[in-house]
Amino acid sequence: MRPKRKQRLIFVTILLIGFSSATALGVYALQKNKTYFHTPAEINAGSVEQDILFRVGGLVVEGSVNRFDDGVTTEFDLTDTEGTVTLRYKGLLPDLFREGQGIVAQGKLNADGIIVAQEVLAKHDENYMPPEVADALKASGASHPENIPKKNY
Amino acid sequence: MIPEIGHFALVIALCLALVQTIVPIIGAQTNTSQWVAVAKPAARGQFLFIIISYICLTYSFIKNDFSVLYVANNANTALPLEYKISAVWGAHEGSLLLWVLMLSAWTYAVTIFSRSLPNNMVARVIGVMGFVSVGFLLFTLLTSNPFERIFPVPLEGRDLNPLLQDPGLVIHPPMLYMGYVGFSVAFAFAIAALLDGKLDSAWARWSRPWATMAWVFLTIGIALGSWWAYQELGWGGWWFWDPVENASFMPWLVGTALIHSLAVTEKRSSFKNWTVLLAILAFSLSLLGTFLVRSGVLVSVHAFATDPARGVYILMFLAIVIGGSLLLYALRAPKIKSIGQFELVSRETALLLNNVLLLVAMFTILVGTLYPLFLDALNAGKISVGPPYFNAVFVPLMLPLVLIIGVGPFLRWKKAGLAETLKKLLKIIVIGLIVGAALPFVVAGKTSILVVVGISLAAWSVLAALYYLFKNVFRGESTLSSLQRFKKIPRATYGMVVAHVGIGIFVIGVTFVSAFEEEKEVPMRVGEKVEMSGYEFGFNGVKDVQGPNYSSKQASLSVLKDNKLIATLLPEKRTYLVQESPMTEAGIDTGVFRDIYVALGEQIDHEAWGMRLYYKPFIQWIWFGAALMALGGLLAALDKRYRLKLKREKVAIASTDNKQTAAPVAP
Predict the structure, then answer these.
(1) Which tops the pLDDT comparison, B240 or B653?
(2) Which ipTM score applies to this complex?
(3) Which residue from A69, B43, B549, B576 could staple onto B78, CB 3.0 to 4.6 Å apart?
(4) Chain B partners of A11 at a C-beta cutoff of 8 Å?
């Protein structure tokens, strides 16, 4: 083979191996690690199976926050005004976690129909609503539009 | 009045940017020297007017001029002065102004440091940068004017986002933007060379220091962002694979590939096509980063803007820049000839592998970041792709990269013997493996396969880099003394060594902290003691503290080891009065080998508080490693050779210039 061709062959082979292995790796990892978002209404309708990791978003129901005796586990209800689900979370809640606040949680459904959260996210701004929550509320035709504030920049 | 001056200055800057784009490029293409000569004054004038505009906005912040909407939204009379100044770039409009300020500053730098380059080349470079500037100035003026007034004028401002009230965030965005925007210089050089139709090693040498400097700033910016997140978010993490972090990390990965590929183009006249594409890609990703962050398409704390018009504009601008430069590339590519040839085992191949791995890593991050957005846009369901995905794809790609880092510098250009090179490095390999096996036991008394792999690789990259330096100082073939050789080693080589040592230090930090960190989330009563990682945490109580624009609950914890007090930590929970948002200020005892980190949670009853305790071994090494990488880049960019060659070229160009000007005069 002429050196020029040989060089090109090296070039192309390395590129091909690199990109194909990365694609394989990426697709595999993506399949394993993506999590779907569901609204409380969808969960009530039974669209989520047990022991599968997913995300849920909504407003924390006023007066529903209940702390266990161990001091670090909390249970609370989450609503999109159409459906309501109960979450349990062991750990310290984020600063902005409040009743009436929009949050997103990631977790799995247990046998009792309670979502055991591994992560609870509340955003750092009183005007800010996670887009998923805002959409979920909009989709359910939320009766309290004032609960869907927008960042007014 | 002052805001109007600022606004007007911005409009003048836009006009100058238009001139700076059109006139010099036409001048260079038609070889009209009067038109070419417009480039530098136009660029400097633009810089001046953007400075004026920027000062006006800063002045409005300092004077609490709440009739300016942007000031009213992002400041408050109680905001401390340093945060008033940094609030200028605290949100969308002002950060764009900072963007164009940096762009014109880089352009100004080009006008200063390019005296020895051919005039036509400089004119094209400045013209391309002018085009980018036009895009961003128009964007600022049309969709995000920071000088917009409101009426009625509010008495008090809404205050700066409390998350941004931290020293780390004062310098993080400017550094990051310096990096982002810095890649526009390498981009402009690539486009200028394509316009000229001449891609030679001189072009690579000219753009190399610029690309390296941009990379240095980006490295510092990303590291500062990570350091800030660690201090401020109260979760003790240093990297979250947040889309906004990814947006800055992708140009960094491509920039890293670019500075290595430029080396091949300069030294061996090879990889030319590839280098041009990397320069275009690095800047495109910087623009994409701006788009992702500024359009509000992401679910993220950083995404301040939620105006789709802005997103559409940036997307169109992105399409023009990427599409235009790729079209130009396609037209010119057949003419580009890479001369240098190389064998399978050679430094070229090692650098090629480096490039492929970095690009593939970038690609997987791009997919993970954009895939959820695509699915969402297609209404195919809302998904999120979290850290497990990124760790699963990124780490395996980086392991071979670190392997190559060690061996690469020892390989000769063109053709090298792998067995022979590895034989030379056998000692280093063995020592690296021993360190990898032993160090975890010394540090933590336990180990795992992943830790051994990580530490061995880290030790390998540190030791190999130092060995390379050692060999050059003590084993040179010439008759010089070691000291003479030491002095003769180019700064670029030191830069390479320091940066590669930095990678090793970084990997050590990452490996240890992810393998051996410990955390506890516990309710603590006043007077209670909790034991973790050999440290005893005693809770002394909570008191109220008043800040300038916040009130705070400050806890006090004594940290004891072997019954000796080593630190008193004061984690806080602040409530910023205007936005009523709570913020966690962690209490951190920083050390070379470990950090102790305490975050205050919520109050459980009248004397018990939730408390988050962390033990973070070697975490500071992460940022120290990043700092070394940046220092290495700086050393490389300041290499004497660039200046020496500049001088030599100046003489050469001066003589050709004389001939050219002399020609028409001759009969």
Answers:
(1) B240
(2) 0.74
(3) B549
(4) 352
